[in-house]
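Sequence in, structure out.
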Amino acid sequence: MAQLRQDLSYTIRRLSKTPGLVLAVVFSIGLGIAANSTIFSMVSRFVLTPPPVGDPGTLMTLKTTDKDGGTSPFPWPVYTDLRDQAKSFSGLAAYDELVPASIGGKGEPERLWGQAATANYFDVTQLRMTLGRGFLPSEERQQVIVLGYHLWQRRFASDPAIIGQSVTLSGHPYTVVGVAPPVFRGLDPILDPQYWVPLGNIETLAPSAAGNTGVRQGRGNHWVAVTGRLKAGTTQTQATNELKTLAQNFAKAYPATDKDTGFSIDRAGSLPARFKSTILLFFAGLSIVVLLVLAIACANVVNLLLANAATRQREMAVRIALGATRRLLLRQMLLESILLALGGGLVGVALSLWATSALAVFHIPAPVPLNTTLNVDWRVLLYTFVLSVGTGLLFGLIPALIATRPILTSALKGEDALARPGRRITLRNILVVAQIAMSIVLLSATGLFLRSLQHASTIDIGFRSRDVLMVSVDPRVHGYTPEHTSQFLTQMRERAAAIPGVISAAATDSVPLSGGNRSDGMVAEGNPKQQAPIVEMYMATPGYFETLGIPRIAGRDFANESPTGPKVAVINKALAAQLFPSENPIGQHVRDGGDLYEVIGVVGNIKSRFIAEDTRPVLFRSLAQTTGSDPSFLGYTLIVHSEGDTVNLLSAVRQQIHALDPAMAVYNAETIEEHISSALVLPRLAGTLFGIFGFIGLVLATIGLYGVMSYAVSRRTREIGIRIALGAQLAAIQRLILRQGMILTVIALAVGLPAALAVAKLFNSFLYGVRPHDIVTFTIVPIFLATVALIACGIPARRAAKVDPQTTLRYE
């Protein structure tokens, strides 16, 4: 220990004498570690962090599985059968993952999303409340509520006396019995429920959202999520085997519905199976990129330390001559590099804290609240510490080994004791080649994502991209009947259209580019053998196509269709081409299961789910004929086309809505520009991240190449002076230095381009309209990098041409 303290004291004194070196190394490593820590914070948040419940290792998420391996929630009767018969669990709780509501009382009405759970939910999760308690068994059908911590803070100003008070939820009084802890936002890793109510009371809270109670009780209707706590001493494997046996029993008892149904079990809080592979692939790609950034930084630092070791060769030779062992010297030099790396780790943590906060500005487009916050938690700090120590050993070992093995006779004379006679390929050159090659990979990935973003932003989305305001309402959570809802939407649309500056207004169940709508297979009536395309379906009012700027090709718009009259529809050009390739679609009929629609119009194609998608067939139904028929939709959206100022327009629209119903919550207010921008969040996020990482890699590689060429010029000063004295032209001297640097660059290009092409294939599913081997990207990147390398080599080359031969010839 005393020896360690002595080595540490000597190392700190030694580093204090080279502040420039310390800053360069700490900053370089800090950038590389910050990139890795930021990406690892995503992995920690979405992959490694268990839900904040009691004993998360025994809390499981259960799903039903079909014959193809797909997973889905439970039908209510299957849950109750499992709850009553499974012996591997101390408790099984069910909950509806997202239930809409409107909270009133003090302040403006607000749209909320919460969960309806069985009374044993908080007992099974073993959750410790901030205030109050969870539900009692006797409260299964009572109007009680547990508030989310952040809702309690924001809406109720953290009132400690909130327990026992009544809050108005969708027009109904609910008694507050508890406040959840601040870290608990449900069991899903990304959803953000804001309250919990008993599942047995869901029809009272949102009768339209609950749908037909009889249908919900059927064994074929999958709608409740299930979580269970393993009994003490029971393993996940044992529970899996029991679930397999129960699935077989249910299949025999209910062959019509349960024949191909199985059960899966996984740790609570795991990523959804349908998104898991995509998310993990995205994280894997980002991890490769940030490791490349760190590798470039390490190569840069190795070159710096090698140059520093060259200035210490006489010191090392004297210490070896006086009896110092190589082990002692290695230990001291590795201690130096580890301290430098830990300094870089501190810088990296600071930069990562800033980066995780900055990533919060990227809003993921979704009609429901999502919890995408990132934190630098203990896992990230531990990862950063291990990465810092490992990095210190990695970049410090080679310079330490070389520096502690000098040619003693040369070192004691003050000559270059690290240079090995006859070597044309030096470690510094190899490191520079590696840096530039890795920069090619980074810049190529950056170029692909920037090209993808550029392509996505120029895609014709098929509807108006400016001067449109959108706000959402949900009359169903206020107990509106379908007839009352239709009246409210008509009045809301008429009032909005009468606001000065408004050109037109309409209502719909979903705006294009909202991530998805209900799809059904449809056929033309009279042609049952026709292959049924999967069709996107929207509800729309009169004026919808005019307001969104969707061109009408044939037929007419919706009018005031009778809710009980024959159903009508407007189809897009793509659906018309599939169902009626050689006929006039106007007046024809299409069948969607048991529903028959008369085609009254054809409109242009739109981007329905995502900007980069292929053209999808779309059918628009009359909202007047479909109000309340689909309990799964997320509310209604009023779209308003105006002449300009959407800020003042929003206030006017709110006033008109509240004039109709003061308790109506207005939510998801945004302009069409904001909506389209949100739809581009993934390419923008990828472009931003890769742009930052690519810039860091380019800067570090350029500095590394410049440093090597500067060092080469300094080591060849006498040679250059002699060449000049013997009559060498200045241009020849410059070409000599430039050739050395550009040879390294060409070698790096030959190594880096194939690697970049291989890595680009990982991002194929994330690119919009750009192939992984995009010719533009893989042409511009090498030319750009070669130009930067030429500049980095040109500065030392010009300095070499200015060497004074008289000064160098006097050098000894």
